[in-house]
Amino acid sequence: MRGGVCAGRDLHGGAVRRETGDRPEAGPPFSPEEAVARALMTGNHAAGHALALAGEANRAARGCAGGAYPITPQTEIIEYLRGFEFSKGRIVAVESEHSAMAVCMGASLAGARAFTASSSNGLAYMTENVFAAGYLRLPIVMIAVNRTLGPPWNIWVDQGDSLALRDAPWLQFYTDSHQDLVDTILVAFRVAEDRRVLLPAIVALDGFVVSHTQMAVDIPPQELVDRYLPPCDVPHRLRPEHPATVGGLTWPRETQHQRHEIQRAMERVPEVLAEARDEFERVFGRRPDGAFRAEHTDDADAVLIACNTMARTLRTVVARRRRAGERAGMVKAKLFRPFLRDALRDAVGPATRVGVLDRNHSPGSGGIFWQEVAATLQGRPDVLVQDYVVGIGGGDVTPEVIDGILDDLLVREHAAEPVWQEVAT
């Protein structure tokens, strides 16, 4: 965003920043001669193109590579990548999602910029290597086009597939639009490959709602992506002159140390993410959102928290109800792992009622985002935190649905078990 004042607050690492559009002073300025090209494209096309730009940006280093296996609704991403003519790179068609991540691991261990995409049961089949890639500290970026896990088989959006990997050592970003998707993919590479982090990253989007719909997107030219993404340097890559093995046996003490190092890397993400967003604004002339984006929460009595495209619908509801005189606010959640608790507490502000919209379900518990929010706000006994399970299996989360949730939250006196959106039969 350039110029003007945004109505919300953008939070990361516990810091509050009001979006004024003022560009940081340091670094090369954005110039009109390098203006981005606006194109009408689907979310899948936009994701594939952003991955291709990132891979091509590493052509002067060790190139790029990725494994490719189709699954609805992400297939078009890997089709796009397979057709892209990389100067120094290769997309390998394999027989399964497990092998697709194995290709990414091999590529990253060779020092290449690595990436792939998957959905639903494909992510589930990939799980063993998802954990392995994280524990090996390989900065792979994977696009997760959220789709309901089966059986019974369902091809529509539900975040249970990527959130099933919440305990894997991966960053997790959730995007609300085509533009947010493109920008977040580039930011994810920069953060993941930073030596202070060196962890893989998932960038998630709503299946069909974003993946197969078209919107106008500002696509940066290769020259600006080259400027933004430094050469990928995996410090522990395999080198012929210094033979080594990976994945050997360790003792409990070494494993505990390794897990602690991963935790410390996660704790450094807020600083690295803030720097990546600053540099993004310097290079591209607009600023992507951070971990949380608070809107109208400074005086809100009730705040709803949502991610992905539900946040866009929520924004219209909150704006309308504030025009009617109600003190409602919202928080868009973008970064799920690491979960920045201080930043969320700041985002919620003084509200005493907080509702969480969860397009996911952990059986026997409730919504997964709600669990994190409730744990974060447990030190505030004045806050009522209520979970609302909505849009499961691709059900519509309409303004009317959110109006009903907000009505319930405003009159609720006590938190209860997760409230499920009524499904018409």
Shape: globular
Distance between the termini: 43 Å
Rg? 21 Å
Helical content (DSSP H or I, runs of 4+):
25-40%
Task: Describe the fold and architecture.
The structure is a single chain. By secondary structure, the protein is of the alpha/beta class. Helices cover 37% and strands 20% of the residues. The protein has helices at 43-56, 75-83, 97-109, 120-125, 127-135, 160-163, 178-193, 222-228, 252-284, 309-323, 341-348, 368-376, 399-411; strands at 8-12, 15-18, 37-42, 64-68, 89-93, 113-118, 141-146, 171-174, 201-206, 214-219, 292-295, 302-306, 328-333, 335-337, 353-358, 384-389, 419-420. It has an eight-stranded mixed β-sheet with strand order 2-1-11-13-12-15-16-17, with helices on both faces. Strand 8, helix 7 and strand 9 form a beta-alpha-beta unit. Helix 1 packs parallel to helix 7 and helix 3 runs parallel beside helix 5 (127-135). The longest helix is centred in the middle third of the chain and has 33 residues, at 252-284.
Q: How does the SSE layout of this entry go?
A:
Layout: E1 8-12, E2 15-18, E3 37-42, H1 43-56, E4 64-68, H2 75-83, E5 89-93, H3 97-109, E6 113-118, H4 120-125, H5 127-135, E7 141-146, H6 160-163, E8 171-174, H7 178-193, E9 201-206, E10 214-219, H8 222-228, H9 252-284, E11 292-295, E12 302-306, H10 309-323, E13 328-333, E14 335-337, H11 341-348, E15 353-358, H12 368-376, E16 384-389, H13 399-411, E17 419-420
Parallel strand pairs: 4-5, 4-6, 6-7, 7-9, 8-9, 12-13, 12-15, 15-16, 16-17
Antiparallel strand pairs: 1-2, 1-11, 3-10, 8-14, 11-13
Helix pairs in contact: 1-2, 1-7, 3-5, 7-9, 8-9
